[in-house]
Amino acid sequence: MDERILIVDDEASVGQFLSIMLEREGYKVEAVLSGKEALEKIAENPPQVVLADLRMPEMDGIELLTRIKEEDPRIAVVIMTAYGSLESAVEAMRKGAFDYVMKPFQIEEIKLVIKRAIEERKLREENLELKRRVKQYELKEIVGKNEKFQRVLELAKKVAPTDSTVLIRGESGTGKELIAKAIHNMSPRANNPFIAINMAALPEELLESELFGYTKGAFTGATKNKEGLFKAAEGGTILLDEISEASPRIQVKILRALQEKEITPVGSTKTIKVDVRIIASTNADLEKMVAEGRFREDLYYRLNVVYIHLPPLRERKDDIPLLTNHFLKKYTSLYNLPPKKISDETMKILLEYSWPGNVRELENAIERAVILSEGDVIKPADLPEKIRDRFSVGGVSDQVSLSGLTLEELERRYILQVLDETGWNKNRAAQILGIDPSTLYRKLQRYGLSKSGSVRKETGQ
Description:
The protein has 461 residues and is of the alpha/beta class.
């Protein structure tokens, strides 16, 4: 039997008596005389159950219970109390104690309570493992056999069971949030919330209150306290999408959340402890931004513990047939349509197109084709015109190499092309690009784009 019991009582005789009795049951038992000693033992080697006296000098059983739950919520805490302290025992139950026993107690009662605590923990862990396996099975929903993409999935599987911070980088539409969700779903945190927020979608003041919460009276309209997304994701994972768009002030607060595991709500001077895993994603060159002083170097290194690069679709074209069939099944089922297939000529076009919008653009194209096509075969005429014409970003022929273009230049040209095609309807363009209108506005400012601009066609020379 590997179950460990920690007894905390300022009366040494109680600890000695319980140790003898419980060791006879096969448990590994340690006894300490104070809450401080108990916390030190828990930090070294967490037990399954803590049996703590309610009334102790310096740190009583209630305070010890609170500290234990902050350190490791899985530990079952059983409170020992005298009859006159029944009210305090009930308070302990409200604060998360597994159970309480009244002094003077029968040893059989103690044995029974400890047995129940261990069995319930085992059951919770088995359920969590089962759910983790189910979530791991869901990874099969991520389609791709390409060697580069398979390496991404293997890395996601390796990092998932840990609490390491992950930085996911890739062009828009490559599936950064999908990978972040997969990491969460395969992690011990899978039972708890996964929350994603687009850092570029909100102005700084609103973003700060959304992330960290606020107190009543912090600003006009703050009529009550509100917890932020970091607290809402307690025990789970938060994805900070487009982390490159975070202002210097927000960067400082995120850094504190990473280093100290604590946040400060807007309008408050008190910090709040948080237990949340942080995953960040971006399509920007953070190293360049650090060099230019636009992104904190210390935050960059805190985020970049495990780095995952998602290849663009043009670098995994062998996945296009798999993805196409996946989206065909998805949307024919969604719209209650009969099964459809792709003609050879249509597939050739899909394989030759450079997909500047990546998997998201392919999915949109297949959804459109499923809706508009007549019959059970998707023909070239069912594809968007720009794909039929086999032109990529800025009218660049797919035959032209894009190896000389930076990621930012590629994004700039694609945004300009979509804006031109929508007659500079920014809301429609943002919808096609798969980003928030406010994000599009920021990118227009960053790249200095205006309606008077034009898309240059490359000659390849």
